[in-house]
Amino acid sequence: MKVGTKFGIAAFALAACTTVLWFYFVRQVNLPEDRTGFVVAFLVAVSLGIFAFIKGTSWLGGIPPAVAVLMGLFFTFTIAVSSQSVEQDKVIAVGDVIPNFSALDDKGQIFDSEGLQGHLVLIKFFRAHW
């Protein structure tokens, strides 16, 4: 096995493990505020993938580093452009009156918040990260 192929497999393994960890946090709706570790891991995977091509791989050995480079660049870009800042003046605290809004429910019907007046309600909003 060529040296580049070994680096390519390492790059793919790092990119794959970091991706699995990222989606674990997404499913938990628990994305960390500081995402530097993810960005660094993906950039290391990209660097290892590029280094694998410099060192030389077989055509079959070039697949893992190519995938690692693509995954690393894609996730680095999406993490970098997807900040989740909250404007403090628009935060709704527990017990506050919610502003009127409408949205689609799980059956595709329009839901209007005005129909909730006079009822004790818990509303949870989930924002996925993609």
Secondary-structure blueprint of this entry?
Elements lengths: L2 H25 L8 H20 L7 H19 L20 E3 L5 E3 L18
Antiparallel strand pairs: 1-2
Q: Describe the sheet with the most strands.
A: 2 strands, antiparallel
- Estimate percent helicity: 40-55%
Please trace the helix and strand order, writing H or E for each element. Answer: HHHEE
Radius of gyration: 22 Å
Q: What structural category characterises the helix and strand content?
A: mainly alpha
Q: Which segments are poorly predicted (pLDDT under 50) over 5 or more consecutive residues?
A: none
Overall geometry comes to elongated
Structural features:
130 residues; two-stranded antiparallel sheet; 2 strands; mainly alpha; 5% strand; 3 helices; single chain
Structure description:
This protein has 130 residues and is mainly α. It has a domain at 3-81. Helices cover 49% and strands 5% of the residues. It has helices at 3-27, 36-55, 63-81; strands spanning 102-104, 110-112. It has a two-stranded antiparallel ribbon with strand order 1-2. Helix 2 packs antiparallel against helix 3 (63-81). The model has no long low-confidence stretch (mean pLDDT 82).
